[in-house]
Amino acid sequence: MSETRSAILELGEMLIRTRGYHAFSYHDISRPLAIKNAAVHYYFPTKADLGVAIIENTIAAFRQATASWQPLPTEKQFELYTRIYQDSQSKGWVCLMGALSPAYDTLPQPMQEKLHRMGQEILSWLTACLERGKAEQVFNFPESAQAKAQVVVAALLSSLLLNKVMGEGIFQSIREAVRKGV
Asked: Above 90 in pLDDT, residue 164?
C-alpha cells in the first residue's frame, strides 16, 4: 500500500471517529497531508470508497488481533477485546461502529453493508469467546452468550460516547463493570 493511501486512510478514520462521516470533506484530508484533492480522489474516487476502505481496514485489524489472541486464555482474550475500546478512548475517539451507526440510514449502501458485516463479525467472535468462557467456567452470566455479547458491545460502544460528554471516569467505570459482569 502506498504511503499516501495509508495516510489518507488513517486521517479519514480519525475524522470519522472524531467528527463523524458527514462532517468532513476531502479538503479536510488533502490540506493536512499537503496533497491536492485530486490525489485523494485518485485513491478513493468517492467518499463512499474511502468509507468502505476504512471499514475493511478495521475488519482486517480485528481479524488479525483476534487470530493472535487464540493461544491465550479466554479471559485474557476478553480483556484484550475491551482494550480495543480503551485504545479508542485514549485517543479521544469513539469506535467506528459508534461513529457511523447514528448516520447509518444516510450512509451509502456499500458502507451500510460493510458496517453490518463488521458488526456481525465482532458479535460472532465475542459470542464464541463468551461461550468458551462459560464452558470453561471462567465466566458466569445468566443470559445467553449472544445476548451477553450484545450487552457488552452496547456498553463499551456507548461508554465511549458518554465519556466524550460526561468526562473521563465514565469509560473506565463501564469497562470495569463489563469485565466484572462476565
From this structure: no
